[in-house]
Automatic annotation (TrEMBL):
Its main location: secreted. One of its GO terms (biological process) is proteolysis. One of its GO terms (molecular function) is serine-type endopeptidase activity. The keyword NADP does not apply. Residues 19-258 form the Peptidase S1 domain. Signal peptide: none annotated. Keywords: Disulfide bond, Hydrolase, Protease, Secreted, Serine protease. PROSITE patterns: TRYPSIN_DOM, TRYPSIN_HIS, TRYPSIN_SER. This is Peptidase S1 domain-containing protein. It comes from the Eukaryota. SUPFAM superfamilies: Trypsin-like serine proteases. One of its GO terms (cellular component) is extracellular region.
Amino acid sequence: MCKYDFARAPWTKNSGNKIVGGNEAAPGSYPWQASLRQYGYSGGFHVCGGALLSNRWVVTAAHCIVNGLQWVVLGDHDRRKSTKAKQTVKIQRVFKHPHYNDDTLVNDIALLKLQSAVSVQPVCLPDPAKEDPAGTVVAVTGWGTVSEGGHTSSVLLQANMPLVDDSYCVDVYNIIADALYGFDTKVDPKIMMCTGYREGGVDTCQGDSGGPVVVFPPKGQAYLAGVISWGYGCGREFIPGVNVRVSAYVDWIRHIIDSN
């Protein structure tokens, strides 16, 4: 059951310079947060985030599915430390959305079935009939880079951002696509949602992809509004980040889980 009863650390817009523009989350306050790990000759390292939907299913971004991706870590906070809360589980099977496009990042969503069940609190799915309006505050979390082109964080970071008006986000990325040769990724508001401040300074970045974009309503349970997907730069002025709109995929998610 996706019941939330954990205390979160306070966040203010100028409280740090991480995730970009966030601060350290309280350990255990985002229990559904997953770290996807790739293993190679040099050992294992964090690739992307994810969100636990049930005791054996994690949702992430399809572009995070790379060669060598074998494990999901849950209950983590400081990636440098080993704790009793940390649970590492092998990925049994991967389900990319059948219409995912690696060039345009359309349908950038995937499900991971874990080899064994975990005892971690999952996050609720959104109501597919409900649309969150522009200005709705969402929480983003991850171990991604703390600045554009910077280094990743060892501890889980958080930031609050508003949802951006769809038409504004579409216009911004149309301008970018027209100005940059080979930039073919555009915003489809039916399946994507945008986050950020006009003045920039707060954003997700490399390594945060696949992670959760969560709404904590005044009443009711927290729910997964988005999956961190893509953007042009990190925390740039006037340029929002782009996320998968999870409400558009609830039926697909339930179908995959129920039939597997």
